[in-house]
Design goal:
about 550 residues, alpha+beta, four-stranded antiparallel beta sheet, three-stranded mixed beta sheet, 26 strands, disordered C terminus
Amino acid sequence: MTDRNWTRRLLFLWIMMIAVLLSGCSEEKSINESSEITIIVEEQPIAENQIPEQTVLMGVDLSYKTKEEAIELLRAALDDQLSNTYTLTDEDKKWTYTAKELGATFDYQTVVEELLDGEIKPETVPIKVDPVSLNAVLRSLISEIEQKSVDATMEFKAGEFIISDETNGRSLNVTKSAEELNASMESGEFLSGPVTLKLTVDVTPPKTTAASLKDATQVIGEYETYYSEYEESRSTNLKVASAKINGTVLQPGEMFSFNDSTAPMTEEGGYEYAPIISGGEYIPGIGGGVCQVSTTLYNAVLLAELEVNERWCHAFPPSYCQMGLDSTVYEEVLDFCFTNDTDSPIYIEMWCDEGECGCRLYGKEIHDPSREIEFYYEIVGTIDKPEPKKVEDPEMEVGEEEIIEYGHIGYVVETYKTVTENGNSVTEWFSESIYDNSPDKIRVGTKPKEGTESSTPTEESSEATENTESSVPVEEESEETSMIEESSEPEDSSKPEESSEEESTGEDPGDEESPEENSSEEESSEEDTGDTDEENAEENTEE
């Protein structure tokens, strides 16, 4: 075979190979085109109540699902996540609840409706919280968290103060705690695992702190009066009232009421019957004598120069203090009140023992160490002694008379206050006190004389009475002897069968006109202070 023939054959083979290759490519293209056509033919139509294709929510394929089918698929896939826990804490306390117990649920219906609508394509299932369930859980924790505040206390023992620390009050803030929990659950924080959340707790500081009490240890005013221990019922009343006041801590701006602090003025409250003044006369009354306690406290308050809100003088000037510096009380009618107008607490130490009734006020001294306070009084007017009061005595013969009680004149007293500081003295009017007068009491015989008829009136008896009246010394009693105190009357500690409506719980407030007569004596809000001399102290022991 010639070379020319071989060349033709090789060329033919190359052409055939190229043809075969070209034929294979054409068949592959034809096959691919055929597959695409098949897919288009098998595509399913979407009904109106079905979720569009390729819809996947939180890992759940909801394509072509109806509302009910989608909700069931989501519930089966997600409900277990509501078992994830929240640990609620307060200081060292912990409480654990599931999200479901706290009121959390998935809002499947809303999200499926949005998918069916097609306008919005949500990415997560919303979480809603039932406020009733959440608040019920939080309120169950109130009693475990709540703690009342406790004031620091101060006690004076063996010449020194013992101060205890205060305790803050604590209460669960349900509203804020609920808001924080609600926000956490709605954001789905628990879906990624357990959550720890600190509850919101409100802290209430006490009124009195240990730090403030440490500033209240300086003596800012003290005063003593004296009484007879032989009058047992009266002494008991003084001790009971003093014990109830002792240890009182008065905060800045707080007002003290004697009646409130010593109540109840009853036998159940520890008080006994002792002489009081009612209607201008001495009678047995519950709590008789406590006015000496109020007077002692009043003078200590004056020395401390605290604001006096209410003060009344006695019906008769008592012997245990200077005229014009006494303070009577009558439960629910007359009171002694003062206010702590300093910026530190005030501690009241009060005692009655071995014939001494004393009061010492502790606080923060703000005055110059050289400051001295003195009080003196002037009698600017007198009220004449009334006509004698006659008491008939059938055991005495007509014409016989006996003075059984000396009365006294009344006084109008002006009290002045002198303040001396760094050698300079300033005196100013302080208060006015009006003390009632009192008649002599005369026992007059009504028994007929022997040899006379009982029914025959005798002018001699009347004349004798006049003579007796004229025989009563007209010379006014001295200031000291005119100071009548209830303890000068014989003590009657037995309870009377009937108690007059006028009987008071104090020493002398039973006089119905006393509030009107003394209304001008109520102290102003000026700073007050008081003092008494040693002579008064000696007189007081006699009462």
